[in-house]
Amino acid sequence: MVGMEVAGRTSAPLTARQAGLVGCQRCARVWPMGTVRCGRCGSRLVSRDRNSLQRVWAWWIAGVICYIPANLYPMLRTRTLFQSQEDTIIAGAIELFTHGAPFVAIIVLIASVAIPLAKFAAIAVLALGVRQGSRIPAGRRHIVYEIVEYIGRWSMIDVFVVAILSSLVQLNVVASINPGPASLAFALSVIFTMLSAQSFDSRMIWDHIEPDQKGPAA
């Protein structure tokens, strides 16, 4: 949004829609309202994608469904010459803590439990705020959206660790580490959550805002 300076005072912010402009969601190029396709990347131009909330909730529900077995089933299966062991995400973090690696255990808990739950909550708050209104200022909601988008790329840390361990620790009869069924469920949950966040049209955050709230161009 841009504010109009009139007689030394800043008037109500002017949205891109009010200025007769529409931005491309893929390359961020701005075009006059009514342009069908982006001349830079060829994407379809729409001022607001109202159907995006349906996709957001569909991917969100799929992510929650996959996140449940990701915490109930073993993430890692360890087999040695004399015993075999299966660990869930929480059990693995507890074992790391008891074996003198509290820092690693905290990282696992943050990356595998705290961040996914926070992403589910943040996406739900953003989607509900667009549909039902929110007391949270639009600027803060947009910051939340940017954070969710940014941390999405780091959500696969557990899957990467399992893949690395599985490839390195393969000593045939002596010892081996293999991924458990939770690793696939966790990976799917992360993918679905990322798709849910990417489906959200963040421009809708700035609809129906108060005149004194300012933010970026829609």
What's the total helix number?
A: 6
Give the low-pLDDT segments. 1-10, 210-218
Strand order in space, largest sheet: 6-5-7
Shape: elongated
Structural class: alpha+beta
Order of helices and strands: EEEEHEEHHHHEH
- State the helicity in percent bands: 40-55%
Give the averaged pLDDT, no decimals: 75
- Compute the gyration radius: what is it? 23 Å
Fraction of residues in β-strands: 5-15%
- C-alpha termini separation: 7 Å
| Most strands sheet | 3 strands, antiparallel
Number of domains: 2
What's the β-strand tally?
7
Keywords: Cell inner membrane, Cell membrane, Membrane, Transmembrane, Transmembrane helix
Main location: membrane
Protein name: Paraquat-inducible protein A
Subcellular location: Cell inner membrane
